Amino acid sequence: MSGRIEPMGSLIQRADPHKNRRRLLSRVKKDKWLLLLVLPGLIYFIVFKYLPMWGLLIAFKNYQPFLGFFKSEWVGLDNFRQFIQDPIFLNLMRNTFLLGLYDMIFFFPAPLVLALMLNEIRISGYKRFIQTLIYVPHFISMVIVASISFLLLTTEGGVINELLFKLLGHRFDFLTSEAWFRPMIIGQTIWKEAGWGTIIFLAALAGVDQEQYEASIVDGASRLRQLWHITLPAIRGTIVVLLILRTGNFLDRGFEQVLLMGNALNREVANVFDTYVYTVGITQGAFSYSTAAGLFKAAIGIMLVLLSNYLAKRAGHPGIY
Fold it and tell me: Which among 97, 99, 107 is positioned nearest to 243, based on CA atoms?
């Protein structure tokens, strides 16, 4: 007789669903306050993240408000074909892809570098002051950031432009130039979010075994060698996980930021998926077409996460699942 013989205890446990139910209720009662803390976040995700997914079905319909959600004509993939065949599609893909690429190259390493620099500060009071200082921009509205950028970069009395005029003899059209639009967007993102992004890296750095540093000092290792051979390998898993999650937002360029910094003179490079969905869907009323464009972008993001997670696991890292 072949087959695996299960322990008697597991068979009794499986055959007694009432006992399992009582055990579950007991755990719920024991952890009721923790579960109560989870409840607001759970309700938020259900109401604002999961329930709205039902509306994605209009991407496969010719949605007409007067016919309603259920009576509108089902058109299948016609909206997706129309979007991909639209002459503006390549321009949208190029602009969004380049901003995403610059974000990965320049912004993603910024919180890591900043966290490593903060980790080298030994005066705790000074370290906390610097952390507070670099966290503040995260809480500033993007409207305020755009206003500050305008005041600093405008050719009509902007502080930076006036300084450049005194040093170089001429002003730069930062706000209206297509060449300066992408560096300006990435610069704003780094200034606003790099400090906030250091939180996870600093938490990972706090868990590095200090005995390794002590042993390396005995061996005569410099601070740079300690950074390369101890610190970075110790937080490599955190870096990989955050990189995988960041790829999911590769095509998400921040609607508000791009909309505020875009204008008629730099529109050729400022038109991305997020602003296009807003323009076509809200201002022109093409609800099904704009939903299809947004769903296309989301599908690309999911595929990038799956691909990056697969590559990370092939390289020997745990990944996110």
Answer: 107
Task: Using the CB atoms, write b or e for 193-213: b if 16+ within 10 Å.
Answer: bbbebbebbbebbeebeeebe
Mean pLDDT score of the chain: 87
Q: Which residue has the higher pLDDT, 206 or 253?
A: 206
- Looking at mean pLDDT, say which of 53-57, 182-186, 212-216, 279-283 comes out highest: 182-186
Torsion of CA 181, 182, 188, 190, to 10 degrees: -160
Angle at the Cα of 99 from the Cα atoms of 266 and 84, rounded to 5 degrees: 85
**Which neighbouring-strand residues pair with 61?**
74
Q: What is the DSSP letter of 53?
A: G
- Count other C-beta atoms under 10 Å from residue 290's C-beta: 23
The matching CATH number, chosen from 3.40.50.2000, 3.40.50.510, 3.40.50.720, 1.10.3720.10, for 77-314 is: 1.10.3720.10
State the amino acid at position 227 in one-letter form: L
Q: Are 153 and 268 in contact (CB under 8 A)?
A: no
